[in-house]
């Protein structure tokens, strides 16, 4: 008897998704709750678990298809559960990567370490997590030739990184003339080549929303610069004690989030939004923090940032960054947000004009810190300076308010004591 697999509920206002990848193929043994497919929504990748144990049956959708919530995408046939159970019962010392592994490679999008699963007479499947797969592809490695040190012989990130380092250490191939008739592969940038790659659903959504922001909002950007000497001195003085007490490094984002919250109290319009003919003033600050993920930029939200301390902020942001790389952020992590902070400085950006994230009305752009000549007490001195950019919806926020917001942030960052005494 076949059991239907349906697209699960994906979150508020999400009615459809794109089939990103099949994690199981027809005939594969499937365990209860084991992911069989990966769906791409407007914000995150979501896995579809098997409702029963059995054998993968008919696949009723193709990769790239748009599928509605509740639609049937596959069936699970009775039987095959014993094979799945047998695989799960293998002792940790059992070899799971026998001869022939790597002949059929599948991708598992759950952020777990890579798993090798036996597949009966058809040969084993080597299943890679997104993090492991990315390293394998970047370094052109053959995962079937790498010995896994994880549980049940699974490949870990350290395994593939070690293999990549070993590959770099290998001597270059002999420069002897190629045999007659042998072909050499041309580098990617030789000749007039083109490649077409389908946009992910996330990238399509980002493109659509950013264009809507430009069309619907009166976006303007104002700038200021900040002397980061005081923040850097505070970090240098307290970073060891901070890390020892809180088990997290003291970064810059804690200072900027706290300064933004302080400034938003003086300029509430920056933390407000427009709904129809009304202005909604939020008496809390939910900060959307832009972080880099394999499929693009995502903006998880720090809830009630006005009530968070430095350690809470740093731990939450570190967690967001880690989960973004692993692909394990959820829809709930990115819903809402009243103000956005984007740090282009980590990529070396000197200056930018960020685009607001609707329905928010403002976004702060951070940039790289570099020493520049400034005048202090009549003397030209070198100081670590950062440009700040505030893009805002001019329909709601006047220029005076935008400038005041940046000035408040500048004052707080150049004298961090203000953050402690709420000044």
Properties at a glance:
Chloramphenicol Acetyltransferase, 423 residues, 2 domains, seven-stranded mixed beta sheet
Notes on the structure:
By secondary structure, the chain is an alpha+beta fold. The chain folds into two domains: 2-167, RNA polymerase II/Efflux pump adaptor protein, barrel-sandwich hybrid domain (OB fold (Dihydrolipoamide Acetyltransferase, E2P)); 201-421, Chloramphenicol acetyltransferase-like domain (Chloramphenicol Acetyltransferase), CATH 3.30.559.10. It has ten helices and 22 strands. It has helices at 81-88, 130-138, 157-169, 201-216, 229-246, 253-266, 310-326, 331-334, 399-414, 417-421; strands at 2-6, 16-22, 29-30, 35-40, 45-49, 54-59, 66-68, 72-77, 104-107, 115-117, 125-128, 219-227, 272-275, 278-281, 287-289, 291-293, 296-298, 301-302, 339-343, 362-366, 370-376, 379-393. The strands form six sheets. Strands 12, 15, 18, 19, 20, 21 and 22 form a seven-stranded mixed beta sheet that branches. Strands 1-8-6-3 form a four-stranded antiparallel beta sheet. A hairpin with a 2-residue loop joins strand 13 (272-275) and strand 14 (278-281). It is globular and about 80 Å long. Residues 81-125 and 174-182 have low confidence and may be disordered.
